[in-house]
Amino acid sequence: MFKKLLVANRGEIAVRILRAAKEQGLSTVAVYSEEDAAALHVREADEAVCIGPAESQKSYLRVDGILEAAKKTKADAVHPGYGFLSENAKFAEACEKAKLTFVGPTSKMIDAMGDKVRSRETVAKNKVPTVPGTDGITDLKSAVQQVEKLQKARKDFVYPLLVKAAGGGGGKGMRIVRKPSELKENLERAQSESIKAFNNPMIFVERYIENPRHIEVQVLGDGKTTLHLYERECSLQRRHQKVVEEALSPSLDETTRKKILEAGVRAAESVGYKSAGTVEFIVSEQNDFFFLEMNTRIQVEHPVTEAITGIDLIEQQLNIAQGQKLKIRQSDIVTRGHAIEARLYAEDCDSNFLPQPGPLHFLRFPHWKGVRVDTGVVSPTKISSFYDPMIAKVIAWAPDRESCREKLKLFLGATEIEGLITNKAFLLEILGSKFFQKGRYHTHLLESADWRKTPKPSSKILAAFCLKDYLDNRIDFSATSRSAWQEAYDAVAN
Predict the structure, then answer these.
(1) In what order do the strands lie in the sheet with 289-295?
(2) Of 2, 21, 31, 307, whose CB has the highest number of CB atoms within 10 Å?
(3) Domains of the chain: total
(4) Which of helix, strand or coil describes residue 470?
(5) Can you spell out the DSSP letters for 110-157?
(6) Are strands 371-375 and 416-418 parallel, antiparallel or unpaired?
């Protein structure tokens, strides 16, 4: 049992964890960088400790700084959230050595699943299907020989191939190879990126699945019992980062669903998993599925699972970390309705999703039944250039998928944002698109411009629209909560 929880994170996930901890009667501690001194998560906690400058390497990624904050505040548990140190086995081990309860799996479990090569080998022993590929490679001289040898041994190991960083994530250290003559160069580039991003020279090569879907299975384990909480569809991505997620997946038939859920449980059982975790799969156009990786932490998109099952995943994490056994059985977990989550970012979708840090003057969400907003900001504020530019996650629930899609679309349309370029219009385009209405899409779809039919209004059109509006109506700018250009943009874009 523990009494005081330190949340080693920031933003919306820190706020989410702090509130869940308070519901259990726990005292709470926030850590923050100098940049985040006025952040919402700092205000939500009972105590707060500054752990360094704005740069993540000097604050949120400082293991010693976080441990010192725990010691200073006499916290006896640490929740890592997602990102930052959440899947760092050395951090979990350091917490264990400092006699701090780490709200998550053990350091050994994180280590076993954190390396993509080792995790694939681990789950394969438990009959979880994996993409045919090489072992880990550090010596590039023998890499080409390994690939050629495997091609002769397995008929399903064919071009195109994918070179991946063994310790990677977020698309870094990944290279698609479409013919043998491109292999050597892409091996070298992938390894170079892996060393720079993860300080890890190990890479591996696997078969590349064209136009795959990204399906993930939410699991819960207490070290002995492992349960699944069904799956999430996470195929809508840009630059290997998810944009819109939903549960259940609209693209799985019941036979494939049953198989992939069972495989997710087996993957977690292969390490005797303890805590909440996610097993990710890629699914081919023929409904063949293969293990991708396991995230040994809470996911950004966990609310859609909570919405359809009624199970609070953070609460479950806290209970398991305190030594409690799971009080639910697999037969108790049933789904109800449909949920979709949209990630609202400060980014320019027409400029390769370039982050748009700066002042957020005005932000107001409607208050609707069946819609949940997870955010770490309250306006007026500033979206920092040092961190992920997420403004909020908006999660809608409804009895059926079409009602849910329409509810989320209307809610986002009624959301008021001023001061920054955001992906709001982009999200509305997705929710209104034919492919989304049909529920059939893949991980590369958003990278294609073919589906976008709504042209972005030019700055000249916007300026002319604002001028005409002003001349026609003589708007008193001080009397409105939103500027004329924002009203004009929404009118033209939507």
Answers:
(1) 289-295, 274-283, 213-222, 226-238, 241-247, 338-345, 390-398, 371-375
(2) 31
(3) 4
(4) helix
(5) HHHHHSHHHHHHHHHTTT--B--B---B--HHHHHHHHHHHHHH-TT-
(6) unpaired
For β-strands 338-345 and 390-398, DSSP reports them as antiparallel
Residue showing tokens 């007026």: 380
Residues 285 and 321 in one domain: yes
Query: Residue 80 and residue 101: Cα distance in Å, rounded?
Result: 11
* Residue 323 falls inside a structural domain: yes
Residues 221, 145, single domain; the answer is no
Residues 26 and 164 placed together within one structural domain of the fold:
no
Task: Say if residue 312 is in the same domain as residue 393.
Answer: yes
Q: Do 401 and 284 belong to one domain?
A: yes
Mean pLDDT per block of 10 residues along the chain (494 residues) reads: 96 98 97 97 98 96 97 98 95 97 97 87 94 87 89 89 81 88 92 85 90 96 97 93 96 96 98 97 92 95 98 98 96 97 95 93 96 96 95 98 98 96 96 95 86 69 78 61 56 56
**What six digits make up the tokens of 246?**
């939903």
Whole-model pTM: value is 0.85
Same domain, yes or no, for 283 and 389? yes
Is there a single domain that holds both residue 331 and residue 413?
Answer: yes
Report phi then psi at 360, rounded to 5: -105, 100
Instruction: Kindly state whether residue 122 falls inside one of the protein's structural domains.
Output: no
Do residues 283 and 197 share a domain?
no
Classify residue 457 by its DSSP letter: P
d(CA 480, CA 387): 31
Backbone angles phi, psi at 276, to 5 degrees: -85, 145
297 annotated active-site:
yes
What CATH number does residue 160 fall under? 3.30.1490.20
- CA–CA separation, 288 vs 147, rounded Å? 22
Positive or negative CA dihedral for 212, 217, 223, 224?
negative
Which conformational region is residue 99 in: left (phi greater than 0), alpha (psi within -120 to 50 degrees), or beta? left
Question: What is the domain-level CATH number for residue 19?
Answer: 3.40.50.20
Q: Report the sign of the C-alpha dihedral through residues 321, 263, 250, 216, in that order.
A: positive
Q: Among 178, 207, 236, where does a domain finish? A: 207
Q: Amino acid letter at 437? A: Q
What is the rounded CA–CA span in Å between residue 54 and residue 41? 15
Q: Which two tokens stand for residue 118?
A: 């080792």
Give the domain range for residue 152: 132-207
The verdict on residue 152 lying in a domain is yes
Which of 172, 207, 242 corresponds to the end of one domain?
207
Evaluate whether 72 touches 54 at the Cβ level (below 8 Å): no
Question: What are the structure tokens assigned to 340, written together?
Answer: 């979709």
Q: Which of 175, 213, 238, 297 is catalytic?
A: 297
